[in-house]
Specification:
This protein is of the alpha+beta class. The chain has helices at 2-6, 8-53, 61-84, 98-118, 144-162, 206-216, 292-301, and strands at residues 168-173, 193-204, 223-233, 305-316. The chain has a domain at 87-237 and 303-316: 2-Layer Sandwich (Alpha-Beta Plaits), CATH 3.30.70.60. Helix 5 packs across helix 6 (206-216).
């Protein structure tokens, strides 16, 4: 103890040195751990970067140029598509007075009734172009623009159906638009068109369905998209053999060259039989055999089909400018 008391400075210096060495060891070990962790992160990132560099679309100069070219081509194709839809984009959806819209609705309804009467196609008694709500009430003034646009589309569809040869329009259902319920239409940023939905049910021969679909896919001012189609035969049971009423063949006339009175031998014809002639020298043709194919056609191809169509009249929105 006397030595420690006599050499306090050396003892303090040795203690401080020991403490510093311990601190340096602890700091160094922690630094080594951080170094190992940092090296592991670096090696992982370097491995991922190496893998990315091997990809086909790594951001090199040539890939950047290729992407710019692809975006430019996509932009031009999109603008061309928007231009193709221009004929179907309504030029003006200005609202008119409610009474003016009602007058237009009645005029279109009368035109459709006349077309269906000319083609002998039956209409429902309550038919009013899908706007039955406005038989006894007026439309809201702020909705007449879009309603008039939809009315013109319905008119073209109904006139096409009248000319297709359909026998009966069973139903025309038009769901109410949001504007008719007091809610303004809000298009999404990605919307390019607004569907105006309709449901049509009609009956007619199979060719009337083909004719109707062929006419609505080539519209003049309206683009129509068929969402669903259901067809059912009016005859649920297949045709039966009893449905075909075949003609019975006529009884054979007795042979004129039978010298034995209906029995025995029949002499062969020598082509000298007398042919009955009509006055004026016309030769009466022999009666044709019964044509059973016509009867089969009546049995197998005379039924009608019931057709249900859910389709959209597309109201194309104003063209969008690409960034």
């Amino acid at each position: 103890m006397s030595w420690i008391k006599d050499n306090k400075f050396l003892v303090a210096l040795g203690g401080a040195t020991l403490v510093g060495a311990v601190l340096l060891f602890l700091v160094g070990s922690k630094g080594a751990d951080r170094y190992v962790a940092a090296k592991e992160q670096f090696d992982t990132a370097a491995s991922e970067a190496s893998n990315f560099e091997q990809l086909a679309l790594y951001p090199r100069q040539e890939n950047r140029d290729g992407k710019s070219k692809a975006l430019d081509e996509y932009s031009k194709a999109t603008e061309s598509l928007q231009a193709a839809f221009e004929p179907f984009r309504p030029k003006d959806l200005a609202n008119v007075s409610p009474q003016d819209f009602t007058n237009r609705l009645k005029a279109v309804n009368d035109e459709i009734h006349a077309a269906f009467a000319d083609s002998a196609t039956k209409l429902p008694d309550e038919f009013f172009c899908g706007f039955e709500k406005y038989k006894t009430s007026l439309a809201r003034g702020e909705t007449t623009g879009i309603l008039n646009h939809q009315l013109l589309g319905i008119k073209s569809l109904m006139l096409a159906l009248a000319g297709s040869g359909a026998s009966e329009l069973r139903n025309l259902h038009r769901p109410l638009l949001s504007e008719e319920e007091g809610r303004p239409f809000q298009a999404k940023p990605t919307d390019v068109a607004r569907p105006l939905s309709l449901e049509i049910t009609f009956r007619g021969p199979e060719k009337s369905l083909r004719g109707f679909l062929s006419s609505i896919v080539k519209p003049e001012n309206h683009c129509v998209v068929v969402r669903s189609l259901r067809i059912s035969n009016t005859k649920k049971d297949p045709p039966r053999a009893a449905d075909a009423k075949f003609d019975k063949p006529a009884a054979a006339a007795p042979a004129v060259n039978d010298i034995f009175g209906g029995g025995g031998f029949v002499l062969p014809s020598d082509g000298t039989e007398k042919v009955e002639e009509k006055p004026g020298g016309a030769v009466a043709p022999a009666a044709p055999p019964p044509d059973s194919s016509r009867i089969l056609a009546q049995v197998l191809g005379n039924e009608e089909v019931n057709v249900f169509l859910r389709l959209d009249l597309m109201q194309f929105l104003p063209a969008k400018k690409l960034p």
